[in-house]
Amino acid sequence: MFLCSAILHQCAAVGLCVQSPSPPNSVRLVNGTCVCSGRLEVKSNQWWSSVCEDDFDQQDAEVVCRELCCGAPSVHQGALYGEVEAPMWTKEFQCGGHESALLDCRSSSSDRNTCSPGKAVGLTCSEPVRLVGGDSRCAGTLEMKLGDWRPVHGSDRTLKEAAVFCRELDCGSAVSVGQRVESSERSVWRIFGDCVLSASDLRDCLIPDSSSSIYDLICSDLLLQPIITVSSSMYGVSEAQQQGARVLRRSTFTICCSIQPQYPGGSFQLTFTSSNSAHNYTQPAVNHSAHFLFAAAEPAHQGSYSCVYHLNVFNHTFSSESRLLSLTVLDPRPLIIKAIVLPLTLLLVNVALYFYCKANRGQMPCRQKNTELDQYNLDVPVAEEEGAQGAE
What we know:
Oligomer: single chain
Order of helices and strands: HEEEHEEEEEEEHEHEEEEEEEEEEEHHH
CATH topology of the largest domain: Mac-2 Binding Protein
CATH class of the largest domain: Alpha Beta
Strand content: 35-45%
Number of domains: 3
CATH architecture of the largest domain: Roll
CATH superfamily of the largest domain: SRCR-like domain
Largest sheet: 6 strands, mixed
Number of strands: 22
Radius of gyration: 38 Å
Helix content: 10-25%
């Protein structure tokens, strides 16, 4: 991870971001994927302390992102980057949002010196790299932020260098680089290729300049992710889920590939893989979808399916793949047996109960006679009963 001291030094060198008397290296984000994300820690008296979420708000987050020369806060959530570590910051920040550094903000004593698990501030600031003016977020003019957003100078750019920016943008690989010459000069960032390929943070490579040559870039990940669903008469429609989808053997089922409207045209490739085979089916995209009909499900259809959307844009072919859908083909015989045996069993039980009750109703007069006889015997005096026993 790139050290905050290097970023603060770079910001100060160009007169941006840090313009306050606060001590350098007073805030940092740790355990994140880059300097612009992680668990917030503040330095005081040589100790780094985590901050409790209840003592920190959106305006405080804006100040931290600005102090680190990052973009605006995009995520602000407790325990996003690990649990709290002692010691704990014991003041509540009260930033107005305009301050250059967090320790320039007013603060008040907090009533806590510990923080509940899951409450340490985790912060993600937007990355200081973007592509603007293109047909998607992965194509357009390359701009970077070091205090303010500026386009990058466009000469002598290579695909190898462009690949670094595409990875930074989470846009796959570089497809093409270009240079656009504008009618007049404007403020730009000049950046050298050797630095881009070796630096831990791209902002280390920026030098303020002015130029009319602007850097345009196209990355491969232009497309949204397709959606894969399967429908059958038995189970209806089931989207790709972890537990997968089920169809009955010899039943008709359809796998649908679709994508949100973004570009016209394109095609869908349905890929199928199992333990012993692999197949590909291709159809043109009609209304941003394609339907693959299977007339009779068989065990051979059981396996994993995915939709791959192919599209030609800017004279380049782009692809985007859906999640995997696991399909299970069920034997209908156990279901048929269950559907027949259970109702038949219930019918036989009901018939047996009917005849049992009918038989019991026929014996009721006998039971009444027996009851009267028992009652008569109970009315015989004890002496007579004993005499009768002696006579026997």
